[in-house]
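Supplementary Methods, section 5.1.

A reviewer requested that the exact input to the structure prediction be made available. We therefore reproduce it here, unchanged from the version used in the analyses.
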Amino acid sequence: MVTCRMFGHRYRFRSEGRTLVWECERGCGAGGTKDYPSAERAARYSAAFDRDDSESLGRRAPLIGLLPLRLWRKFKDRA
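The structure derived from this sequence is encoded token-by-token as follows.
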């Protein structure tokens, strides 16, 4: 897909027993699997990897480079 070539894949992770499975949510067919010693470990990794960091944008921004984003975030949280 053109979108994946331009912006990279957008992987989604899930666990199926002891297997960690990841696939691109855009449907381009990219993905894979990995087996872990226990189902708990596979579930823990899938939960850790399958997070969307867009809601924390501006909270973990570099101090100087994204200063306008930090300021906007601060004013937005006060309102």
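Strands lie at 11-16, 19-24, 31-35. These observations are discussed further in the main text.
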